[in-house]
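User: Can you predict the 3D structure of Ubiquitin-like domain-containing protein? Sequence below.
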Amino acid sequence: MRVRVKLELEVELEEDDRIRDVKWRIDKMIGIPVENLIIDKLLSIPPFGDNPPSYRDHRIYDHMRLGDLAVREWSNRNLVLDIKHHIPKELTISVVTPAHVTLRVRALDSWTISRLKSAISDIAGTQHSQRLIAFNGKPLLLYHRLMEAGVSENSTLELIEPDVGPMTITFKTFVGIEPIRLDVRAESTIEEIKRMLYETRMLPFSALKLIYFGYGSMIFLD
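Assistant: Sure. Here are the predicted structure tokens for Ubiquitin-like domain-containing protein:
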């Protein structure tokens, strides 16, 4: 017989803490290893007015700051996070290089793509460090976990060359103006983009904070 027990913890945090910092604090409180904790969404959100922020349902990743989740309406309220205890499973996966060489990698399903790339470097050197990893034809971001992408035992992933051509990025602000679209290069830095926003819309360069919530969504300015 299995019994599911729901445990509620209250953790004191700072606005600059990241989701991974939350995991470290939980580890210290109840001894569950950081790598076994999954925080991927808000379990509940504080009440909002007539115009709740559209980003409230987006996926949460370890690198995100709590301040980015608590912008404006959330800044003085408590957040409730959905935390899962996941025991990592060992996988053997194949990674095909652009030269059609197949690498066999032992991994855990809780690994991020960044961690997988480190394992590939241990096997084949750093020659693939700038390449993207794709699964079922879709490039995966560095902070995606293998289990989130549907990677399982004996799955095959690909190392592909990144497309560094031009792109258009859409920005949305919280002050009610129309979204801003900028034509940028793939290698453009955040500082360069902030300067472009200042030059095109006179937005204060030093005060800009860009919040990215994934491919296909807008980048929010605060």
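Residues 46-57 have pLDDT under 50 and may be disordered. The domain at 166-221 is CATH 3.10.20.90 (Ubiquitin-like (UB roll)).
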